[in-house]
């Protein structure tokens, strides 16, 4: 593949369900739904056996059960999946120091300039898949191309256990017939807006001049113009920079009291902050996710003035995001700390004394809660 970059995107196949089937061989070949089994539950992952019935992630559990009545429903085992994810990351690190984790079960790998040492990118991808199968007893699908957008697109073209290569000469043929919503950042609403003006496929969009796109898509026009041509110059952001720590909760009944939501959100912030401190990390960004009773899901994020793992600072950011929305009954709420960096140094004499006191307070609170339970000591400031 003659390009300036060689990028792989690796995506574990039905990760949560596959781990359960591996850990419990009696479940192999059976339809699995991973998620909360309740009237408000949502499918986190569906095994391929369940997908054949029309089940998929982010689907209401009641819908999935209706489509696949014989499905076995299991709760999410987050700690177990994280353990396997770390094993996956260790394998990827064997092939390249430039690995960007995207989520618990997928990552980008940069092999640019390694062909003389490691071989062709597609051969490296085959060895990577074989190593994962051998060590983890799981399968992964891999896309190989010359940028992140095309590599991720390729990994989704032949699942499960696939390997797809998109070369420069393949770009027009592959992209043109795809729905325009396949372009990163174009969701349902933007897709519907474009359809009204005759843009349904990537090929349709590519025929429009940049100025026309600016009229209809605003500041995002240049990015979509480039993606429609297979152009994506985003660099990989290795290791910690790409990781995040989050927590979310689905309610059994839509919650119509904003104060109750704030209390739940504060508890989530405390849990996320505690995990950051436990792992020696700080966050430079915070994002909030809200799903309403009609399943409309919205998200908003903010960049912090500096990296932090202080509970009160993360809470101020989360509360600020929450208070920007006109409130209506909530089905799910989640908070994520993003753009993580390692805590490398202690406070100096020139740091804010108030911040130093907050860090000490958090440290004491963590030790007490670790010894006596998470709710042994709480704090105010939820309003």
Automatic annotation (TrEMBL):
<dbReference type="GO" id="GO:0006281">
    <property type="term" value="P:DNA repair"/>
</dbReference>
<dbReference type="GO" id="GO:0006260">
    <property type="term" value="P:DNA replication"/>
</dbReference>
<keyword id="KW-0548">Nucleotidyltransferase</keyword>
<keyword id="KW-0234">DNA repair</keyword>
<dbReference type="InterPro" id="IPR022880">
    <property type="entry name" value="DNApol_IV"/>
</dbReference>
<protein>
    <recommendedName>
        <fullName>DNA-directed DNA polymerase</fullName>
        <ecNumber>2.7.7.7</ecNumber>
    </recommendedName>
</protein>
<dbReference type="GO" id="GO:0003684">
    <property type="term" value="F:damaged DNA binding"/>
</dbReference>
<dbReference type="GO" id="GO:0009432">
    <property type="term" value="P:SOS response"/>
</dbReference>
<keyword id="KW-0479">Metal-binding</keyword>
<keyword id="KW-0808">Transferase</keyword>
<dbReference type="GO" id="GO:0003887">
    <property type="term" value="F:DNA-directed DNA polymerase activity"/>
</dbReference>
<dbReference type="InterPro" id="IPR043502">
    <property type="entry name" value="DNA/RNA_pol_sf"/>
</dbReference>
<keyword id="KW-0235">DNA replication</keyword>
<dbReference type="InterPro" id="IPR024728">
    <property type="entry name" value="PolY_HhH_motif"/>
</dbReference>
<keyword id="KW-0460">Magnesium</keyword>
<dbReference type="GO" id="GO:0042276">
    <property type="term" value="P:error-prone translesion synthesis"/>
</dbReference>
<dbReference type="GO" id="GO:0046872">
    <property type="term" value="F:metal ion binding"/>
</dbReference>
<comment type="similarity">
    <text>Belongs to the DNA polymerase type-Y family.</text>
</comment>
<dbReference type="Pfam" id="PF11799">
    <property type="entry name" value="IMS_C"/>
</dbReference>
<dbReference type="GO" id="GO:0005829">
    <property type="term" value="C:cytosol"/>
</dbReference>
<dbReference type="InterPro" id="IPR043128">
    <property type="entry name" value="Rev_trsase/Diguanyl_cyclase"/>
</dbReference>
<keyword id="KW-0227">DNA damage</keyword>
<dbReference type="InterPro" id="IPR001126">
    <property type="entry name" value="UmuC"/>
</dbReference>
<dbReference type="Pfam" id="PF11798">
    <property type="entry name" value="IMS_HHH"/>
</dbReference>
<dbReference type="InterPro" id="IPR017961">
    <property type="entry name" value="DNA_pol_Y-fam_little_finger"/>
</dbReference>
<feature type="domain" description="UmuC">
    <location>
        <begin position="7"/>
        <end position="187"/>
    </location>
</feature>
<dbReference type="InterPro" id="IPR036775">
    <property type="entry name" value="DNA_pol_Y-fam_lit_finger_sf"/>
</dbReference>
<dbReference type="Pfam" id="PF00817">
    <property type="entry name" value="IMS"/>
</dbReference>
<keyword id="KW-0239">DNA-directed DNA polymerase</keyword>
<dbReference type="InterPro" id="IPR050116">
    <property type="entry name" value="DNA_polymerase-Y"/>
</dbReference>
